[in-house]
Amino acid sequence: MPIRVLIVDDHELLREGLKSLLSREEDMEVVGEAAGGREAVALCRSLRPDVVVLDARLPDVDGVEVCRQLQEEMPEVAVLMLTTFSDSDLVLGAVRAGARGYVVKDVLGMDLKRSIRAVARGEVAMDPKVVGYLMQQMRSPSADKEERIPLNRQQLAIIRLVAQGYTNREIAERMFLSEKTVKGYLAEAMRRMGVKNRVEAAMVASKNGWI
Predict the structure, then answer these.
(1) Which of 11, 52, 189, 201 is most buried, by CB atoms within 10 Å?
(2) CATH 1.10.10.10 is the classification of domain 143-207
(3) pTM exceeds 0.70
(4) pLDDT tens digit string along 139-177?
(5) Which residues lie below 8 Å from residue 69, measured CB to CB, with a gap of 6+?
(6) In this structure, what DSSP letter does residue 35 have?
């Protein structure tokens, strides 16, 4: 089955360009497009796409808030944030809202398609420039530094590989574990850390000096 994609951006030319780019792929189908946040949420309710390519800056509702609404109502829908902005606060907000990926608009077409496929599989897709902003943000001094949460050696090793961009399958191969075991260790680590996804887990671990 093709990956069903909804494109959300207030610029018509960009939407048309993305639609043309993705429609050439045999494993992708653009099922709809929206120019604003409210329209995007309504379309998601009716169309139930696999991936939403979502602009972080929209004229009516902020893209981060749209992402949060989508994840609360339809957590099975993968959100890939697409924007010209690489502001660390915006990126951090998107990650905490549940976005599985974040890429900037100057991304090459091949990289965008790779990112869509990755988030559709449940993986994380972050632009390297964005990762730099996140790491800088999370390592900055903070008056309300997060409490240290103990993780065992296996969990720390897995979080370290997650931060380096490895998938569960690749981590399993490197650590001589089954993919199911890796998923279990990772789920327990995220539960102990109080985070919702892989990216936030890597950021919290980096901020606290665990990896």
Answers:
(1) 52
(2) yes
(3) no
(4) 554 434 444 556 887 888 898 888 888 888 889 888 888
(5) 41
(6) S
